[in-house]
Amino acid sequence: MSLLRVERMSKEFGGVHAVEGLDFAIEPGAVFSIIGPNGAGKTTLINLLTGVYKPSAGRILFAGRDLTGRAPYEFAAAGMARTFQNLQVFFNMTALENVMVGRHLHERCSLAAAMLRFPSLARAERACREYAVGLMEFVGLGEHVGARADSLSYGALKRLEIARALAAEPKLLLLDEPAAGLNQTETQGIDALVTQLAARGVTVVLVEHNMRLVMGVSHEILVLDYGKKLAQGDAATVGNDPRVIEAYLGAGVA
Fold first, then answer.
1. Distance between CA 94 and CA 254 in Å, rounded?
2. Residue 23: closest CA among 36, 11, 5
3. How far apart are CA 232 and CA 120, in angstroms?
């Protein structure tokens, strides 16, 4: 059964179709990439898939549940997590604290226990910290556990957002342009990280302009053009589609 299924989904803004009549499904454990020119509707689609926007028409089915029209926190509780095209980091906190914030869905401490500082609270905080440290090591930030977020490089902050999203233990991780603004070495690191996530069975939705990255890690690619599906398939299929080459990739990519 598909982990995520989108049926005839559309989104209008003042009569303008940002997304129109989209149908697609994402299988568990896949890296599913969404590409297209600027203004194609990629970020709008991500916002629809996480509850930031409500669709004008259509349905979003996730893990057997209809989440159409639900609030973002309900998408998160169902098992979705995301990063953002523009960094959304708590710069006045440490890197570790940023990751620990992502664990809030799994914290089960009551208000009374927190107010009275029960031993269970200390155990929960210790477990949360240890889990967050493990995630920072996984994304390559182990040496920055004690650092303030505002002291990290841009590339490290991109990884920090991924670690925070992973702290929620998502069934589906949505990455909105994780390689944007990174140099070649940093981009290769994101490539390796996405590959590791897929190997661990994490389902990834990747929105990205770096075609070398997309073609290298994706099991399936959805191409958008003016909010509509232009093509869908594996890297070879999409990379050799004349419509995709004309609209986006450019001659010579295939």
1. 44
2. 5
3. 49
1-68+171-254 CATH: 3.40.50.300
- Measuring CA to CA, which residue among 73, 77, 57, 71 is closest to residue 6? 57
- What is the distance between the alpha carbons of residues 211 and 246, in angstroms, rounded to a whole number? 15
Distant-in-sequence, close-in-space partners of 8: CB < 8 Å, separation ≥ 6: 21, 22, 23, 57, 58, 59
Banded model confidence at residue 106, pLDDT cuts 50, 70, 90: low
pLDDT digits (tens, 9 = 90+) for 1-46: 799 999 999 999 988 889 999 999 999 999 999 999 888 899 999 9
**97-120 b/e (C-beta count within 10 Å ≥ 16 → b):** ebbbebbeeeeeeeeeeeeeeeee
Q: Name the nearest CA neighbour of 180 among 96, 87, 49.
A: 87
- Report the pLDDT value the prediction gives residue 254, as an integer from 0 to 100: 39
Collapsing DSSP to helix, strand or coil, 27 comes out as: coil
Split at pLDDT 50, 70, 90, the class of 125 is confident
Contact predicate 171/3, CB 8 Å: yes
Smallest CA-to-CA distance from 177 within 136, 211, 139 is with 211
3-state DSSP percent of the chain in helix, strand and coil, to 5:
40, 25, 35
Task: Take residue 223 and report the two structure tokens written for it.
Answer: 């191409």
pLDDT for residue 127 is more than 80: yes
What is d(CA 236, CA 32) in angstroms, rounded to the nearest whole number?
14
Predicted confidence at residue 113, as pLDDT, reads 52
Question: Measuring CA to CA, how many Å separate 148 from each of 11, 22, 90, 157?
Answer: 39, 42, 9, 11
Where are the chain's structural domains? 1-68+171-254, 89-169
